[in-house]
Write a structure and sequence with these properties.
By secondary structure, the protein is mostly beta strands. It is built from 2 helices and 13 strands, in the order E-E-E-E-H-E-E-E-E-E-E-E-E-E-H. The strands form 3 sheets. Strands 1-2-10-7-12-5 form a 6-stranded antiparallel beta sheet, with no helix packed on it. The protein has a 5-stranded antiparallel beta sheet with strand order 9-8-11-6-13, with no helix packed on it.
Length: 183
């Protein structure tokens, strides 16, 4: 597995080794031992989630506060998304900065997001199916969110925001300047 570091500490892009032949392809999407050896992280993923969305859906930005803070390993198993995180770790040098990358069936990239980041994505293809692993169980009481349209963060979602399909919950999330988080 090829591990690509990002400008924000703790974020990794993982590119699997893909074996193609005339029948199609095969790759190992996750192996705990390989993940640990390649990243130095010993993570026990306990929950898998999957979501299907249509073009211009914008989900996020979401996170879980302590004691249920989650690290995630995300990939698109159908279609194409623009995956985005914002650093909400108060003592981080990159607090309030965002990072985005394209995840797709074609590129087979995965995105490792540690605790302390708000996460979201926009759908660039007609449909997309997203699959992700979490190292803590979802806990409604620990839910947190950050407004996807915060002008001080100024995220480029790679879609026209006027066309974005956003949940009622995501429309009213707070801006970073008043965010309440445990990070």
């Amino acid at each position: 597995m090829n591990i690509i570091t990002t400008p924000i500490e703790g974020l990794f892009i993982l590119e699997p080794r893909v074996f193609n032949d005339d029948r199609g392809y095969f790759y190992e999407s996750y192996n705990k031992n390989t993940f640990k050896a390649d990243t130095g992280l010993d993570i026990n993923f306990v929950q898998d989630n999957q979501a299907r969305s249509t073009k211009n859906v914008l989900r996020g930005l979401h996170y879980q506060n302590h004691p249920s803070a989650q690290s995630k390993l995300i990939r698109a198993i159908e279609g194409k998304i623009w995956d985005v995180v914002v650093d909400i770790r108060k003592n981080s040098k990159t607090y309030g900065q965002w990072f985005g990358l394209e995840l797709s069936l074609e590129n087979k990239r995965q995105f490792y997001i540690p605790k302390g980041f708000a996460h979201g994505y926009s759908v660039l293809s007609e449909t997309a199916e997203v699959f992700y692993k979490c190292d803590e169980f979802y806990n409604k009481a620990s839910e947190g969110g950050l407004n996807y349209a915060d002008p001080n963060i100024n995220i480029d979602w790679k879609i026209d925001i006027a066309d974005a399909i956003v949940s009622e919950k995501d429309l009213v999330q707070p801006y970073l300047e008043v965010l309440v988080s445990t990070f």
